[in-house]
Amino acid sequence: MLLEGKNALVFGAGGYLGKHIAERFELEGATVFRSSTSAIPDQPTLTAIDATDESAVDAYIDGVAGEAGSIDIVVNMSGVEPVLYKHGKPANEVSLEQFMMPIAVDTAAQFITAKSAFRHMSKQGNGVIIMNTSTLAKVGSPWSPALTASHAATEGLMRSLSHEYGPAGVRVLGVRSEAMPDSPTIEYTFSTMGANMGLGFGEMKDFIEKNKTALKKLPEAKDTAAVFAFAASDMAQFMAGTMLNNSAGHIVD
What digits encode the pLDDT tens for the residues 112-166? Predict the structure, then answer.
C-alpha cells in the first residue's frame, strides 16, 4: 500500500473527484480526514470547513494534527460550481465578478490550505501538498476565461511554493488532468461548450477524444485519483514543482 501510515487531509471531499481521491488514499492505507464547504447529509464523515476561511482552516488542521500526530498529505479540491461563473459561455457574457470567482475560491483555497499545512509539515521535516488543475492551464480553450485563469494561477502558485517549502522537506506539486466525462462538472461543461458548436454531450466527448488527445480516450475520476495517490507516495519523493500530466496526451511536454 503506497500510503500506509500516512495522514491525509482532503478538502472538497464531497465533490466527485475529491471523493474518489479520498477513497483511493484509504485504499492505499492512509488515514483520511475529509472535509467539504458544507455538510452533506449522506456523507456523515465529512467535516464542514470553508477552505477560504483562514482561521477555520488553521483550527481544523491544528485539530487533525493534535488527533493524528502528523499532517502528511494535503489535497484541496474545493471549488465554485461552474454554472455560477458561466463556464462554457462566451467571455463577453461573463461579468468581472464571475470571472474572479474561481480565483477567489479555487486558487485562494489552495494557498490557504497549503500555508496552513506547512506550519506542521515544516516542523516534521516532511509532507506533500498536491494541487489540482486541468489542461485549461496550458491550452487556449475558448469559452473558459475564468477557470483557465484560475488553473494557470494555481500552477504558478505551485511552482513558487515548491521552491519556498522544499528546503523544509515539504514537496509541493500538482496533477493536471484532462476532462473526466464521468464527473458531473464535465457533463455540464461538455454540454454547455458543445452547445456553442451545435454538439450534444456525447458528440463533444467524441470531438475532444478524437481531436485533442493522443490516446483517443479520456480518463475517469478513478484514473486521476490513482495519479494523486502516486504523487503523494514515496515513489514520487523527488517530484516537486511539477504538474503530473494526466491529459491523455492533450498536453505534450
Answer: 999 999 999 999 999 999 999 999 999 989 999 999 999 999 999 999 999 999 9
The three-state secondary structure class of 2 is: coil
Q: Which residues contact 152 (CB under 8 A, 6 or more apart)?
A: 133, 136, 137, 138
β strands within 67-220, DSSP E: 73-76, 127-134, 170-177
Is residue 237 within 8 A of residue 128, CB to CB? The reply is no
3-class secondary structure for 150-169?
Answer: HHHHHHHHHHHHHHHHHHHC
Location of C-alpha cell 472535509: 35
CA distances from 66 to 6, 7, 87, 124, 239 (A): 15, 12, 40, 13, 28
Distance CA 134, CA 211 (A): 17
Task: With CA atoms as reference, report the closest residue to 100 among 122, 88, 85.
Answer: 85
pTM across the whole model: 0.96
Q: Give the other-Cβ count within 10 Å of 9's Cβ.
A: 29
- In the β-sheet with 243-246, what is the strand arrangement from edge to edge? 47-48, 31-36, 7-11, 73-76, 127-134, 170-177, 243-246
- Lookup result for grid cell 476565461: 145
Q: How far is CA 234 from the centre of its chain?
A: 20
Give residues with Cβ within 8 angstroms of 84, minimum separation 6: 98, 101
- Tell me if residue 9 falls in helix, strand or coil: strand
Q: Are 251 and 176 in contact (CB under 8 A)?
A: yes
C-alpha cell at 98: 464571475
Instruction: Please give the Cα distance from 169 to 124 (Å, whole number).
Output: 8
Instruction: Report the alpha-carbon distance of residue 22 to residue 10 in Å, rounded.
Output: 6
